[in-house]
């Protein structure tokens, strides 16, 4: 970890498997970030007291085909150095705990405070009545109105039970750490993992917040293949096809988005060019 210390104005990005992670879209987004940014392990939470191991069981893994080791379900944190950004990133990839949610959030908050985290971004995904043929809807919330407006967040109107993602975001705000969340809407009729189109939508939002290019690898092609496969399956069932058409019509009848001003379009285009433009000296930071 010495090569990462001290961290530069770190941003924490968190996703939790389970209730908060329809189609594994959010956890896949964090995994993608860890892969493309060469994440290095930082720490992990002691799972004792947070998880019911009869619900989320530990797993046995063979090492070198001989030695058996136990891997316990927990929440792991890793660090990424972003060479083209003034901020480093702390990734949180966890499993929604079964017990002691406030204590769980306190442990994550302590890590955030110790490393002087400047902002927390929560990623989630939910099942929704949306068609797979349209762009994935991403709703969200922010710690203040100005941030919400600047990110063009479509406010969620949801009220009801929440998951650890919502609880952790609230804990961050209460502790004085700016926190925002993005939720991708996964079509409920195709909720099986993976859901690359939703993962892609979340990563685009991460790009916007960090103002850096996120290498997407094969995700765009996987998203196209996913949509084509779902469309092919749906075409073989008239009832499903009719249902999807009704969802498409409902989206088209919704109130259209207000057109962006020329100034905001130009500013966003400039940010896009900065993220995607060639970087002097290549993309290596080591």
Automatic annotation (TrEMBL):
Lineage: Bacteria, Bacillati, Actinomycetota, Actinomycetes, Nakamurellales
Pfam family, one: PAC2
Organism: Nakamurella multipartita (strain ATCC 700099 / DSM 44233 / CIP 104796 / JCM 9543 / NBRC 105858 / Y-104)
SUPFAM superfamilies found in the cross-reference section: Cgl1923-like
InterPro entries associated with the record: Proteasome_assmbl_chaperone_2, PSMG2_sf, Rv2714-like
Protein name: PAC2 family protein
Signal sequence extent: none
